Amino acid sequence: MAKASEADLKMALELASALEAISCWYGGTMPATIAKPQQDEDDWEPFTLEDPEHCRRVCEYLIRLARSASLFRVVMGMVVLLDPENRFIDPDVDILAYHPDTVAALEAIADPMQGR
To answer: CB of 31 within 8 A of CB of 13?
Structure first.
């Protein structure tokens, strides 16, 4: 599995941010990168599905963004990392932590007399 590049990760974060913006429960906003300036600098340009111009701008932006790097490498890298059969990550906790087998192996390397 190819490792995600810095550009891939940056694009994935920007895409996640854009999707969060347009789908916010409290009223979607245009992604910051394509938002038109508002009179009050603290205001965000609203996004509505009923506005064809909004939808066109967002679709064009998302397509351009997706073509700029590989979201697939980011997602598949995480799928491989989290696959329990690979024993990289502890499947029994809700955070990214080393698999117990990895921890034991590292401890054995650090202290070769541990298992005797």
So the answer is: no
